[in-house]
Amino acid sequence: MAAQKEEYGAKDLAVLEGLDAVRKRPGMYIGTTDSQGLMHCLWEIIDNAVDEALAGFCTRIVVTLHADGSITVADNGRGIPVDKEPKTGLSGVEVVLTKLHAGAKFGNSSYNAVGGLHGVGSSVVNALSSRLDVEVDRNGKTYRMEFRQGHPGVYTDADPAHPSPDSPFKKTRKRSPTELREVGTVEANVTGTRIRYWADPEIFNSTAKFSYDQLIDRVRQTSFLVPGLSITVVDENVPETGDESIDDLRETDEMMLPDREQSTEAAVAEQSEADQPADEASSEDGIPAAATVAERAGHARVEEFCHTGGVVDYVDFLSKGEPVCGIWHISGEGTYEEETQVVGPGGDLHAQMVERTCGVDIALRWTNNYDTTIRSFVNVVETPGGGMHVDGFLNAVTRQVRKTVEANARRLKVNLKDSGTKIERDDVTTGLVAVVTVRIAEPQFQGQTKDVLGTAQVKPIVTRLTDKQFGEMITGSKRGYKEPSSRVLEKIVGEMHARIQARKTKEVTRRKNALESASMPSKLSDCQPGNDDIAELFIVEGDSALGTAKAARNSGFQALLPIRGKILNVQKASVSQMLANKECGAIIQVVGAGSGATFDISQARYNKVIMMTDADVDGAHIRILLLTLFYRYMRPLIEAGHVYAAVPPLHRIALTGKRKGEYIYTYSDDELASRVAQLRRDRIGFDEDIQRYKGLGEMDADQLADTTMDPRTRMLRRIRMEDAAQAADIFDLLMGGEVPPRKKFIVDNADDFDRSNIDA
After folding, report:
1. Could you give the number of structural domains in the chain?
2. Cβ distance 91 to 83 under 8 Å?
3. Residue 364 near residue 327, CB atoms below 8 Å
4. How far is residue 236's CA from residue 240's CA, in Å, rounded to a whole number?
5. Measured between alpha carbons, how far is 568 from 622 in angstroms, rounded to an integer?
6. 97, part of any domain
7. Pair type for strands 230-235 and 691-692
8. pLDDT per residue as tens digits for the range 194-219
9. What is the extent of the structural domain holding 366?
10. What is the C-alpha separation between 747 and 742, in angstroms, rounded?
11. Which intervals of the chain form a coiled coil (predicted)?
12. What are phi and psi of 538, to 5 degrees?
């Protein structure tokens, strides 16, 4: 039977008006509706305030995290216009917060280099909020307007001091007068904007969580990129800590002053004495000072950021490990022509060629670290995906390094006749810390989330400036750069040799199957071939434990590699030292996927790599050294969840009486005491002579299998890296070459140390 023909007409077409399209398809505007999208909304509001700073009209921003989950962003900029917009007849506030692609950033009169330029930031946040309140100080008055899911109206709060999106709301009818109303007065010279919003749970999924650490990172980087701008973060979710913190907070008011000359950044409890009374700072522009906000809220977590050194200070902050050279600075500007749509006198768009100015500000330094850290920005908006400005910078740096290495081949011991000894970009960027910023009008981003800069004309300008200025530095022709440039070149050439050696090692270690590798270490007890999807490699501490482990393992899928004591601390060692180390080389060879930049996880010979060491302090130290090796040179294994720590027991309790022959294993002294107390309460007999294992070698094969190796009964701890940047900081602190920070960390945290969390 033929299907009935469906009618399709104009009545089937849906027209989404206003901000309804944003609520229907939020992913088009903020990327996702999880934590990333939640944070993106905050960036949009903060970026609008920062744009005022870039235009020279804002010196202070305060971000407040309220206990009810809402967020307030306040600035002392010019304030959103409150007069009528001629075309719509609405107030400027309502236009900015309810109309997509509306704002001053489409013209050239109010803003030049800005971050938010698509005209959808504030309106999208409004659409995706269950409630949004805005207050504007202008013309000696304070104006207020409220919205529910993007629609203007008026809330009736039972307690105005504690507004809520659940309060009664009267929606403004279409074609009715705007609900922007005067609610107070301010000094004639006071201007600014305050926006408080509550993210809508109907839009964001249940896993969406706000990240305080991401906020602090973003605020800190903005303070570097806009020298002199003071940004305060107040978190009302932190418990009170007493009056002392309030006294300390008062000392930070000097941070709020726009004429501060020195760079500062710290939690407010660590600031120096103020140069001006708090009352003056708090009344300067209508934004409460940090101390005032904290005292009113009764909370202590207030952090403030203000720097004057720009990208040079930022590179210094990002640098980890021992510097190879000082911080090199590249700056300048260039012009280019671009065809753009310009709003004419009648409000119509027409194409016009305009001349743009591109300002370039770059700072870079090499350290002895393995990692590459390149942060790129366009008008203070971070571009994690890079783009034309980063491409231009890296192309020029790589080209200049290659030319200089070729010119100094004999001194650097580079064989130019060998086609394989060529400097690659990875060699240049290893250990490189750089901040690349450009400021241009109306940049072209790839998507609203602004991850990649697409303005092609920027690339040749950055390339030309880098070629000239970096070329003078790396060749040593610029005064004061001869010695540091030599160190940089030696490091880069060393990375090239290490890469070539690593590639050779990788080629040697790859095998067609588990039994064909004649080059495997003789001490490896490999598993049978054909079980690659479940194969496990146990890295065993000591030869004594190896004998027991051989009898306890399932040779079908479990391989054993013994190591002798504590391996090389690769956090302090160079790549060549690591490769020359017998134990480290054996581990990399057995895993079979290479190391460093050439690591290929698809070539790994085992599905799980399990560190099996004694349950004591020495065993924990060995695990840390092993984990440092995996983190620095085989990181994808950790990121993919293939690295584990075995959890051998510390004690064995032998039961007696009717349960003779049964054993209970415990993994800490606290657990032992708890189990013994439980057995006594339950009147279960046990041998008072409780066995305490000093090492894996003290177990017999059955015990080791049951407790540590048999997948059916063992317990493993998976090594995870939820935050790679934080993990890098911890590894550098605990395993790096700088002793004072490590000593301070140990002293500060000694009282909170818990041995049971040593692998947590």
Report:
1. 3
2. yes
3. yes
4. 9
5. 10
6. yes
7. unpaired
8. 999 999 999 999 889 989 999 999 99
9. 310-341+353-502
10. 9
11. none
12. -95, 120
- Structure-block tokens of residue 607: 């599905």
Whether residues 325 and 215 fall in one domain: no
Q: State pTM to two decimals.
A: 0.61
- For residues 478 and 598, membership in a common domain is answered with no
Could you tell me which of 445, 439, 470 has the C-alpha nearest to residue 334? 439
Same domain flag for 475 and 559: no
Nearest CA among 337, 43, 462 for reference residue 214: 43
Both tokens of residue 703? 């015990």
Question: What is the three-class DSSP state of 453?
Answer: strand
Q: CA-to-CA distance for 574 and 502, rounded, in angstroms?
A: 13
Residue 242: Cβ-neighbour burial (10 angstroms; 0-12, 13-18, 19+): exposed
Are the CB atoms for 117 and 442 separated by under 8 Å?
yes
Interatomic CA distance for residues 169 and 685, integer angstroms: 69
One-letter amino acid identity for 759? D
Burial status of residue 164 (CB atoms within 10 A of its CB: 0-12, 13-18, 19 or more): middle
Contacts of 590 (CB under 8 A, 6+ apart): 509, 520, 521, 524, 537, 559, 561, 605
What pLDDT, in 10s, does the model give residues 7-60?
766 655 555 566 777 888 887 888 888 998 999 899 899 989 998 998 889 999
Instruction: Please tell me the distance from the alpha carbon of residue 724 to that of residue 239, in angstroms, as a whole number.
Output: 28
Of 471, 502, 533, the last residue of a domain is: 502
Whether residue 363 contacts residue 315, with contact meaning beta carbons closer than 8 Å, is answered with yes
